Amino acid sequence: MYKNLSSILKSVSKPGRYTGGEYGQIIKNKEDINCRIAFCFPDLYEIGMSNLGVRLLYGALNQEPDVWCERVYAPWTDMEEQMRKYDIPLWAHESKDSVKDFDIVAFSLQYELCYTTAVNMIDLAKLPIYAADRTDDMPVLIAGGPCAYNPEPVADFFDIFSIGEGEEALVELSRLYIKMKKNGTYNKKNFLREASHLKGFYVPSLYDVEYNTDGTIKSFKPKYEDVPKKVEKRIVADLNKSYFPTKPIMPFIEVVHDRIMLETFRGCIRGCRFCQAGMVFRPVREKNAETLNNQAKEIYKNTGYTEISLTSLSISDYSCLHDATDKLLEWTNPNKINLSLPSLRADSFTKELMNKVSSIRQSGLTFAPEAGTQRLRDAINKNLYEEDLLNAVRLAFEGGKSQVKLYFMNGLPTETYEDIEGIAVLAKHVVDEFYKMPVRPKKPVSVTVSVSCFVPKPHTPFQWEGQNPLELLRDKQSFLAEKITDRKIHYNWHEAKVSRLEAVFSKGNRKLSKAIAYAQKNGVRFDAWDEYFDYDKWMQIFADCDIDPDFYATRKMSYDEILPWDIIDIGVNKSFLISESKKAYESKTTPNCKEKCSGCGANKLGGDITWCPKTK
Amino acid sequence: MVPENQITPIRIKFKKYGSLMYISHLDLARTMQRIIVRSGIDIWYSEGFNPQPKIVFAVPLPVGVESECEYMDIKINTPMPCDEISRRLSVNFPEEMKVVDVYVPDTKLKKISYIDYEITISSPYVEETTAQEINSLFQKDLYIIKKSKGNEKEINIREYIKSINVNYLNNNIVINTVVCSGNEKNLNPELIIEAIKKNTGILTKSPISELYSIIRKRMLCEDLTEFK
Fold first, then answer.
1. What ipTM score was computed for the predicted complex, to two decimals?
2. Which of A4, A10, A301 faces B64 most closely, judged by CB atoms?
3. Is B184 near chain A, with CB under 8 Å?
4. CATH T-level assignment (fold) for domain B4-106
5. For residue A361, what pLDDT is reported?
6. Which CATH number belongs to the domain containing residue A55 in this structure?
7. What is the mean pLDDT of residues A218-235?
8. What is the number of structural domains in chain A?
C-alpha cells in the first residue's frame, strides 16, 4: 500500500512527517521478532518527535532483541482526508506496515486535549475504537503518560494502562505477551488478567463502577479477588543505572525540540499545590554529574546537535547543577555547543548561572511567580517572595537583558480580585526595578505577563476544587487588563474555553468515553490546535450525550467522595493531600523536601531517593 | 581562526532517494550540518554572531524528486584525505543517502547549466501511442503557469527544454530530458508533469493507480559535458 502513496505524499503539506527513514531509526528483521509494538503519539510528528519519554520507551523496548517497537504519529487533516478517501490504513514509520497487524499498539497520552486524536488514530488504523469490540486477533491497546494518572475518561478505548514510569514496565509486559503466545495460553482475556498482576498496570475492564443518583461514584471494585484494589505506579529505582537513549533518531524536518534533551532528575522537591507533575513524579531521584556528562558526550557524538537542554521540573533544584554544568562547559564551549536551562526558579537565579547559560547565544528570561500576592503564593505553596523575583530580574538587567517574561495563573483556589490586581502591581515593580538601576541596558525594558487559567488536576492538593466558571475567569482576565496601565508591560492570557475543556477531562470519569467517541465520529480532532478547537461544538456534544460538563469542571468535591482516579496509587497519601488542601485555606506553606520531609508517603516506592528518608 | 590559505575546499557528490525525496532543501541543509558535525570533520564555520558550518549546495532539489548527482561544497580547517571524509560521511548518512565521490574541486558550482532528468510514468491509462502523443506535445510551443514565491507567470516550457526523448518501456512511459538550470533559466521538472496532466489527462484520474517518479541523473555544463 505504502508504495502507492507517492502521488498522495507529494500533494500533502510536509510529507516528511510521514516517511520515516531518519538516521537512528531502528529497523529489525521481522523473522527475529516475537512482539511488534506500534508506539503512537496522538499529535503531529513535529510534536511527538520532541517528546523525550517516547524516545526513551522506543529505545528501551528495542533493546529487547525479539521486540520491535516502531513509531506512529497522527496524520494532519489533509493526509487523513486522503487516507479515508483511498482507504489507506494507518501505518508505522519504520516498516510501513499497517498498525492493525501489530501485537501491541501503545499510546502516549501527554495532555487531555489529545484524546479525540488518539481515538481517531485507532479508527484510522481500522480497528474498533472500543476495547470491548476488539477481538483476540487484534492488537492489545495500551496507554500511558501523564494522562494515565486519571485514565477513566478514556478507559473504554484501551485494554491496559501503564501507570508511572514505563521503561521497565513495558518490557515486562511485552515479555509476558511473548511467554503467553509461546506457551499457547494467549487470548486477550487471559492476557489482560495476567497483566493486571504485573506491577503498574491497570486493566479497566476488570473493575465494576457503580454510581449514586447524583452522578458521583458509589463503588469502584475489582471484579475478581486476584485483581488489585489499587494500582501502584512504577518508578525506576536508579537513574544512574537505568537506560537512557544516547543514539536518538535525527528528524529531517524541523521539530519543536530539535536539540539534545538530557534528563537530569525526576520528581520535584517543591510541592506547589496546583501542580500534578510535582506530586505524581515523586520521589526525587537524581542522576549524578558524571552520568549526565557521559551521556551528553555520547549523544553529541551520535547526533551532531549543537544545543543541549538540561531537562527537569525545576532545574535549579538539581543538587549537581554546578558540578554538571562545569563538566559540560569544558567541552561544549570549544565545540560551539549552546547550553540551555529551562524552568529556572527566581529564588535560585544567580549571576554565575546566567553567565553559564548565555555563554554562546542569548535568550530571554522567564520566571513563574504564578500568583500576584504573597498571600496567594503561600496558599499555593509557591514559596517565592517578591524580593526573590526582584533580585533575579535585577541580576538579569545587570547582565544586559531587558526582556523578562512572567507566568501567572488566574482562578486559583482562594483567589480574590486583590490577588489579581497584585499581578499588575508585581509586574510594575519589575519595570521599576529596571529604572532604579543607574546603568541600564540600552534596549528598553519589556515585561510580558502571561496568565493561564487554573485547571484542577487529579492527585494534587487541589484535586477536589472546582474550576471558576467561564464567566468569572473571563471577568478576571478583563479586570487584569484594566489594571495593567504601564506600556512596558505586555499582557497575554489563555483562552478560558480551552482550560474549561481540560478541566472536564482532567477530572472526568468513565462516562466521558462516549462523548469522546461521539466527538471523534463527528470530526473533532486536534483540540489542542487553535484552528480546530471548537468549544461550541463540544458543548453540543456534551448535551447530545447527556453529560453536564459543570459536574466535572466546576463542582467542588468533598474529601470523602470516591474519586474516579482513586484506583491509582501515586505513592503520595490522600491524607497528605487533604492536609495540604486545608493548609491552602490558611495560607500556610509547607517546606520543600530538601529542607524537611513533610511525610507525603512517596518514599514507600523506594528507589535511590535523593532527599527522602528511607522507609526501612 | 585558521588562515584562509590553509582551508581546503572539498566537493561531495551524493545520491538522495526513496523517502528522502520528500525532504526539502532547507531540511537537507540542516541535516547535513549535523552529519558533518557528528562525522568529526573539521568544517570551516561562517563568521559572525551566530557561526554556522558553511555548506554550499549546487542546484536545490525539488521535493518529490530523487537524485543520483547532488553536489555540495564545504571547506575544512584540518586537512583530511578524501577517502577518510567519504568513509566518515557514509557511516553517518541516513539509509537512503549515499556518498558517490569526494574530491578537491577545480570548477565552480555555477558552471552547471543543464540538468538531465529521467521521468517514469506508470498508469493503466498509458499505451504505446501515449509516448508519441507526449513527444509531440513538447515539439511545439507549450505555455504553462510557473509559480514562484507567490508570483505566477506564464512561460513557454519549450524554451527551457534542451532535449526530450519519450519512450514506452515495460508498460511505462519513460522520458529522458535535459532542461535548463541556472539563475536566468531554470525548470522544475514537475512542470513537465503539469504539462502532461493538463494536455493529456494522464495522472489526473487516480493518485493510487497512476504514479510517476522523477530522477535527477546528471548535472551538465554549458557544452553538455558532465559537471565535475
1. 0.90
2. A10
3. no
4. Alpha-Beta Plaits (3.30.70)
5. 44
6. 3.40.50.280
7. 97
8. 1
